[in-house]
Amino acid sequence: MVVSYNKLWKLMIDKGMNKSDLRTLTGIGTNTLAKLSKNQMVSMEVMMRLCEKLDCDISDVCEFVKEQECL
User: Fold this and answer.
1) Less crowded by CB within 10 Å, the N or C end of the chain?
2) Which residues are bridge partners to 3 per DSSP?
3) What are phi and psi of 40, to 5 degrees?
4) pLDDT tens digits for range 43-57
5) Tens of pLDDT along 29-38?
6) E runs forming strands in the chain
7) How far apart (Å, rounded) are the C-alpha atoms in residues 53 and 25?
8) What is the value of pTM for the model shown?
9) Which residues fall within 8 angstroms of residue 51, CB to CB, at 6 or more apart?
10) CA 69, CA 32: separation in Å to the nearest integer?
């Protein structure tokens, strides 16, 4: 299984945000943002910060999918 942050990108579109806005709001670094963009794992601390600042639940920003579904 792999993580997908497609829900995060959709949420950002709904809120009229871009990636720079997300970085400013949450204080995450460029490396963390790059990991999110590549659907790589990030720390639970980052996930909690995203959820707190975006006023949402973790299931609103990410999901786990089977690898074959990602292809």
Assistant:
1) C
2) 64
3) -100, 160
4) 999 999 999 999 999
5) 999 999 999 9
6) 2-4, 63-65
7) 7
8) 0.88
9) 57, 58, 60, 61
10) 24
